[in-house]
Amino acid sequence: MALSGAGKQTNGRDVRIYENSDELSTELAEYIAEVSETAVKDRGIFAIALSGGSLISLMRKLCETPYNKTVDWAKWYIFWVDERVVAKSHQDSNYKLAKDGFLTKVPVIPSHVHSINDSVSAEQAAEEYEFLIRQLVRTRVISVSDFSDCPKFDLILLGMGPDGHVASLFPDHSVLKETEAWVTFIIDSPKPPPERITFTLPVINSASNVAVVVTGSNKAETVNIVTNGDAEPDRPPLPAKMIQPSNGELVWFLDKAAASKLDGAKFSE
Ligand SMILES: O=C1O[C@H](COP(=O)(O)O)[C@@H](O)[C@H](O)[C@H]1O
C-alpha cells in the first residue's frame, strides 16, 4: 500500500516513502529506468555510479520484466561511487555484490563496466580511477558539470549507513573537506574493511540525479536528522546531509521503517 508520504517534499527535498522494501524496489526500478531513458534520449549514453550495501538488492526489480527488456542496456556505462580495498572475489567487494546481484542479470556490455582496480594500493586505485573518469569526461561518455570541471554522472545511487555515511564518506572524516580530487581513498574507515576508495562530495554533488535509498528502522533517527532542513547547532553536518546536488535532482527513497521518525510523516491505512 502506498503511503501518503510518497513523493512529498520535505523541506524542499523529494522524499518518497513506501510501505515496504518490495514496493520501494518497484518504484526505484521505474525511477532508474526513467532517468536512463531521459539520458539516452538527450545524449545517447547513460552513465550511472553504484554504491554497495543494501542498495543492490533494492535494485532487484530492475532485473525483472519489463525492465530487463525495455531498458536500453547497451547504452549503460557503469561506475562505482565507492569500493573496499579487497579482491573482486571477496565478499566485501562492492563490485562482486553488484556483479552477483545485478550485472549478471541484465544485458549490459562488459566493456562498459568500469570497476576499480583491486590489485594495487588504495592510493593508486583512487588515482587510476580518477584518471579513467577524466578520460571518459574528455570523450563525453560522462558529461561535464556546467559549473566546474567535475564529471556530471547521469545518476548516482547512494545508500546510507546508520551513522549517516554515504559512499565511503564517514562522519567527521577529513575527506569530507576534499575539494580538488574527484576520487580519493581512506585507510581508517570506522566500518570494516578500513581501506576504501570513494568519490568525493564535489563529484557526487555535480551529478544530474542523485538518489539516496534507505531502509530499516535502525536508520530512522539519522534519516530524520539528515532530511530535516535545520542544521544541528553543535556538530558538523553528517555526510548524508551534505548531499546537495548543485544543479541536479535529489530524491530520497525510504521504506516505512526508515521514515518512521520523520517529523510530520503521515501514513495512510
Ligand atoms: O560501506 C558501505 O556502506 C554504505 C551503506 O550500506 P548499507 O548496507 O547500510 O545500505 C554503502 O552505500 C556503501 O557503498 C558501502 O561501501
Name the structural class.
Answer: alpha/beta
| Global mean pLDDT | 94
| Percentage of residues in strands | 15-25%
Give the topology string: H per helix, E per strand: EEHEHHEEHHEEEEEHEHE
| Bound chemical compounds | ligand LXAUTJHC
GO molecular function: 6-phosphogluconolactonase activity
Family: Belongs to the glucosamine/galactosamine-6-phosphate isomerase family. 6-phosphogluconolactonase subfamily.
EC number: 3.1.1.31
Catalytic activity: 6-phospho-D-glucono-1,5-lactone + H2O = 6-phospho-D-gluconate + H(+)
What does this entry look like structurally?
By secondary structure, the chain is α/β, with parallel strands linked by helices. The protein has one domain: Rossmann fold (3-Layer(aba) Sandwich). The chain has seven helices and twelve strands. The strands form three sheets. A seven-stranded mixed sheet has the order 1-2-12-11-8-3-4. Strands 5-10-9 form a three-stranded antiparallel sheet. It has a two-stranded antiparallel ribbon with strand order 6-7. Strand 11, helix 7 and strand 12 form a beta-alpha-beta unit. It is globular, with a radius of gyration of 17 Å. The protein starts with 7 loop residues before the first strand and ends in a 14-residue tail after the last strand. The chain binds the ligand O=C1O[C@H](COP(=O)(O)O)[C@@H](O)[C@H](O)[C@H]1O. The ligand O=C1O[C@H](COP(=O)(O)O)[C@@H](O)[C@H](O)[C@H]1O binds next to loops.
